[in-house]
């Protein structure tokens, strides 16, 4: 695939675990199978949740696994000017507006929240804040967004009824993930986003922002989730253990198995052995 550019974009709230390695390996293999480039972006836009030094830990883990990016990593925390410029464009076009609501006010106006569902913003400040100070900035969500996921197939979501006007810049002054990722993917020329299935629900919001900003929409592929013993997604929030990289080949074997790839036997843990195994999986991925 000519011009393929993929990326792995971890949030440095903790070291990589088994679930995040599956996403990293899947995105790396997809890029290599299509003869493309693979980038790493550190999504540390939510600074208070990112312990100092965790970004370097993650980069070290990727290097130990032989997953090396083709360009220097990018840090979201260093890109405020890009996000502000995008927000300014959305405000100027009428697609973003200031919101004065508190969390409690939104919850009271939105009514009961369905189990595991979205708290849909009721549009209280769509026509102004009645003189109240602006706390956050929101995107006007309109219409149904449909897209084709490379693994999940046809997908769609009605933004207005299922999500509502979502936040672009938070009340604490931090940038929301949705805006940052859209700006970054466009600036880095990302053609294919390969990430965990838990992020599929974010895709229509990102497509809506891409369209509003006149940016290209990448192809999307959402990988199977790795579940903890209790059946919930394996994550840092539920205590997922950091990868044991004393045996990097074993960790790659486990991640590849989650992706339906045949384990490649190797008694060696040298960088050359890692490269050989990754090359074999790349060939298998190219046939899928």
What does this structure look like?
With 288 residues, the protein is of the alpha/beta class. The protein has nine helices and ten strands. The chain has helices at 18-33, 54-64, 80-92, 103-110, 159-162, 177-187, 203-213, 248-258, 271-286, and strands at residues 5-8, 37-42, 74-75, 96-99, 136-139, 144-149, 153-158, 167-169, 192-196, 219-223. The strands form four sheets. It has a three-stranded parallel beta sheet. A hairpin with a 3-residue loop joins strand 6 (144-149) and strand 7. It is elongated and about 65 Å long. The two termini are 14 Å apart.
What order do the helices and strands come in, and which of them pair?
Layout: E1 5-8, H1 18-33, E2 37-42, H2 54-64, E3 74-75, H3 80-92, E4 96-99, H4 103-110, E5 136-139, E6 144-149, E7 153-158, H5 159-162, E8 167-169, H6 177-187, E9 192-196, H7 203-213, E10 219-223, H8 248-258, H9 271-286
């Amino acid at each position: 695939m000519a011009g393929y550019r993929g990326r792995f974009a971890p949030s440095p709230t903790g070291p990589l675990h088994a679930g995040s390695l599956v996403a990293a390996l899947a995105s790396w293999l997809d890029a290599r199978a299509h003869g493309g480039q693979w980038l790493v972006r550190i999504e540390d836009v939510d600074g208070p949740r990112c312990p100092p030094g965790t970004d370097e830990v993650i980069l070290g883990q990727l290097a130990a696994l032989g997953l090396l990016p083709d360009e220097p990593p990018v840090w979201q925390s260093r890109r405020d000017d890009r996000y502000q410029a995008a927000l300014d464009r959305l405000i100027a076009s009428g697609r973003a507006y200031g919101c004065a609501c508190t969390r409690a006010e939104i919850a009271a106006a939105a009514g009961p929240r369905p189990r595991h569902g979205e708290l849909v913003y009721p549009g209280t400040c769509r026509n102004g804040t009645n003189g109240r100070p602006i706390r956050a900035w929101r995107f006007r969500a309109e219409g149904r967004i449909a897209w084709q996921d490379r693994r999940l197939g046809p997908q769609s979501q009605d933004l207005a009824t299922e999500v509502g006007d979502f936040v672009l810049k938070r009340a604490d002054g931090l940038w929301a993930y949705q805006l940052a990722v859209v700006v970054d993917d466009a600036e880095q020329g990302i053609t294919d986003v390969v990430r965990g299935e838990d992020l599929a629900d974010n895709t229509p919001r990102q497509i809506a922002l891409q369209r509003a900003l006149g940016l290209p929409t990448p192809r999307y592929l959402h990988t199977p989730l790795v579940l903890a013993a209790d059946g919930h997604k394996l994550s840092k929030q539920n205590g997922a253990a950091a990868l044991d990289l004393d045996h990097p080949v074993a960790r790659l074997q486990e991640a590849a198995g989650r992706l339906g790839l045949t384990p490649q036997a190797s008694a060696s843990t040298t960088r050359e052995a890692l490269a050989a195994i990754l090359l074999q999986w790349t060939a298998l991925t190219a046939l899928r």
